[in-house]
Amino acid sequence: MSLLIIAGSSRRASFNRRLQERIAEVAELNGLQCYAYPPSELDAPLYQGDYEDEYGVPSNIQKLATAISEASKVVVVTPEYNSSIPPLLKNAIDWSSRLENNPWTGKSVLMAGASPGQFGAARSMTDLRSVLANVGAWVAPNVVSVAKADHAKIAEVDADFIAKFLKQGD
Ligand SMILES: Cc1cc2nc3c(=O)[nH]c(=O)nc-3n(C[C@H](O)[C@H](O)[C@H](O)COP(=O)(O)O)c2cc1C
Questions:
Q1: Pocket-testing residue among 89, 115, 151, ligand 1, by greatest number of atoms within 8 A of Cβ
Q2: Is the CB of 14 under 6 A from ligand 1?
Q3: Is the CB of residue 104 below 6 angstroms from any atom belonging to ligand 1?
Q4: Signal peptide location in the record (predicted)?
Q5: Which atom from ligand 1 is nearest to the alpha carbon of 8?
Q6: CA angle, 18 then 118 then 89, to 5°
Q7: Confidence (pLDDT) at 16
Q8: How many CA atoms lie within 13 A of 84 on its CB side?
Q9: For a disulfide at 136, which of 37, 61, 105, 140, Cβ 3.0-4.6 Å?
Q10: Can you give the pLDDT at residue 137?
């Protein structure tokens, strides 16, 4: 099985990037072939219909779509901005859903998130679940949520818990 892990923050010291790495670490320990997608590669102009008519879907988003299509399972790790999904992630999902072969259709997707706040990106994941279902993904029920996040706490997220989380949809 091949696992693609997408994180919705390109911030250098991002907690969600760190969580992406932690999940990748555990996946590899469990023998999964795994690719932690570079968050900077999600960057694209804000979706706009005239831009799409003139230039089509940006090439980096086409690359992302290929990576999603080729993965047997995708983990999306999301920050929380004002109780919802950050624009980097929402824009990448919006653009990728515009492709003729929408890569999310029928894809098994797991969600994770970290925030320094007390909700651990849970509210962002509620919105993300709705968006992913709308683009045709099968979204797993259990999530990894790290509240009051710091780097040390994320590095210690229980490996057995992550391994169980990753088995959803097998
Ligand atoms: C515009 C904005 C809105 C935010 N809203 C929330 C929020 O609703 N809940 C929360 O827990 N943190 C919120 N935060 C704080 C983020 O969780 C924090 O900046 C976090 O570090 C972002 O994720 P990252 O570390 O992966 O970049 C917000 C941050 C920004 C910039």
A1: 115
A2: yes
A3: no
A4: none
A5: 26
A6: 50
A7: 98
A8: 8
A9: 105
A10: 98
How far apart (Å, rounded) are the C-alpha atoms in residues 100 and 78? 25
Q: What is the CATH number of the domain that holds 133?
A: 3.40.50.360
Query: Which residue, among 73, 92, 167, has the nearest Cα to 131 in the 3D structure?
Result: 92
Distances (CA, A) of 156 to 84, 94, 147: 25, 33, 13
Determine if ligand 1 sits within 6 Å of the CB of residue 11: yes
Query: In this predicted structure, what is the pLDDT of residue 1?
Result: 82
Helix, strand, coil fractions of the chain, as percent rounded to 5 = 45, 20, 40
Nearest-angstrom CA–CA distance, 120 and 47: 28
How many independent structural domains does the chain possess?
1
CB atoms within 10 A of CB 63: 12
CA-nearest residue for atom 14, ligand 1, is 81
Range of the domain at 141: 2-167
Measure the CA angle with vertex 10, ends 19 and 158; round to 5°.
Answer: 0
